[in-house]
Amino acid sequence: MHGIVFENLKHIRKRISNAAKFQQWAVAKFIKLVEYKVEDTVLFVDTVNPAYTSQRCSQCGFVHEDSRSDKSFECLKCDYEVNADYNAAKNIANRYCAYIHRGQKSRGGWATCQLALKSGTLNVNGDFNASPRLEG
Q1: Start and end of every Cas12f1-like TNB domain (predicted)?
Q2: Distances (CA, A) of 37 to 4, 9, 34, 68
Q3: Is the pLDDT of residue 56 over 90?
């Protein structure tokens, strides 16, 4: 099972104070376009709750608004440092993996889930295995 997972930003305009500045955002339209493009493939498109994905440490789970500073993320608890968008992407993957883990169960009661990121794979336990770098 392969797919593309987005944050559900349906209500983003209600949450930001300078919403007029962001009226050009076409999040729903973009997701619909992606859904259309993957229609005849084996891919799926889904969304997850966006709460705290940019403030949560993808290593230890600690949440604090001061952990993210523009493009960098540094956990105030475990000192994990990484690109802020990459950290948020790992949190989105973790959240979706947990959703799948709860929602689809085999006879044994467990669903296997492993999410592929460009830099490696992430499983339902939060274990990350880095992909070897391809040499060009």
Answers
A1: 29-92
A2: 11, 20, 5, 33
A3: yes
Asked if residue 30 has pLDDT above 90, the reply is no
Strands of 49-133 (E only): list them. Answer: 68-69, 72-74, 81-83, 114-117, 120-123, 128-130
Q: What is the pTM of this model?
A: 0.65
The number of helices, as runs of H, and strands, as runs of E, in the chain is 3, 8
First-to-last CA distance in the chain?
29
**Domain coordinates of the chain in residue numbers?**
1-10+18-50
Residue 98 CA to residue 125 CA, distance in Å, equals: 9
Q: Identify the sign of the CA torsion 28, 59, 125, 135.
A: positive
| Nearest-angstrom CA–CA distance, 8 and 43 | 18
pLDDT in tens, 100-117: 666 555 444 445 555 556
